[in-house]
Amino acid sequence: MDLQTVGTFFNTAWSVYDIALEHNYMYHREIYAGVLDQLRQCEAGQYTLLDLGCGSAKTFAPVLAQHPPLRYVGVDLATTALAEAETWLRPHGFAVDLHEGDLFQFIQQVPPASFNVVFAGFALHHLLEADKQTFFNHTHRALKPGGFFLMPDAVRYEDETRDVYLQRYIHNVQTTWTALSPSQMEAVIEHITGQDYPERPSTLARMAQRAGFAQSQELSRYGHHATWRFDR
């Protein structure tokens, strides 16, 4: 999967994602409340965090304001979203370093043991399976001892093929994302059909184990949206 294609979609359709956030179609409120609980296990003002596929950080910034890192590094291909991220993150006082780029390439260049937390929200499912394994390998390397990788993302049910996942997810969009215009609905469905490759829970756990993670845990699930934690 070419993440440049994903970046192009979000550069041209960021307003659609904002509608999804506003109406909580992807359960961001519940998910990010859980993310805050996980971050509170780190010492406020002392941990470093890498956010891969950070987007506008509109949802994450209020979480970080409540439990700030020492340093936040954000990476995204969508220039429109990165410009917005500046406005959401800068006022909270912690160091902010934003990069326009491909998260898959970026993680491979991170020096070993650089971050206490790596975060990737709704991003990893755009990679194919072999690239996901490479991502896990480099994420493990980028974490400090005792660090962890947090991943809220689209995750299939254990009994699902990708085709069944697509049918269920698209049906959910068509029946509940009612604030979208017909053209916006069409763009979202086209994006899901062409660029969503979520894994089964057992596949994620196997990838993490192969990468060297000591523990994998699904922390919460809201439909096809699950939050996973992988401990180094």
Task: Give the topology.
Elements (H helix, E strand, L loop, with lengths): L2 H10 L1 H9 L5 H12 L8 E5 L7 H7 L4 E6 L2 H11 L5 E6 L2 H6 L6 E5 L9 H14 E12 L7 H15 L5 H14 L5 H11 L3 E8 L2 E7 L1
Parallel strand pairs: 1-2, 1-4, 2-3, 4-5
Antiparallel strand pairs: 5-7, 6-7
Helix pairs in contact: 3-4, 7-10, 8-9
What does this structure look like?
With 232 residues, the protein is of the alpha/beta class. Helices cover 47% and strands 21% of the residues. It is built from 10 helices and 7 strands. Strands 3-2-1-4-5-7-6 form a 7-stranded mixed sheet, with helices on both faces. Helix 3 packs parallel to helix 4 (60-66), helix 7 (129-142) packs across helix 10 and helix 8 (162-176) packs antiparallel against helix 9. The longest helix is centred in the C-terminal third of the chain and has 15 residues, at 162-176. It is globular, with a radius of gyration of 17 Å. The two termini are 27 Å apart. 38% of the residues are buried.
Give the helices and strands as they follow along the chain. HHHEHEHEHEHEHHHEE
The helix count comes to 10
Ranges where pLDDT stays below 50 over 5 or more residues in a row are none
Shape verdict: globular
Percent of residues in beta strands: 15-25%
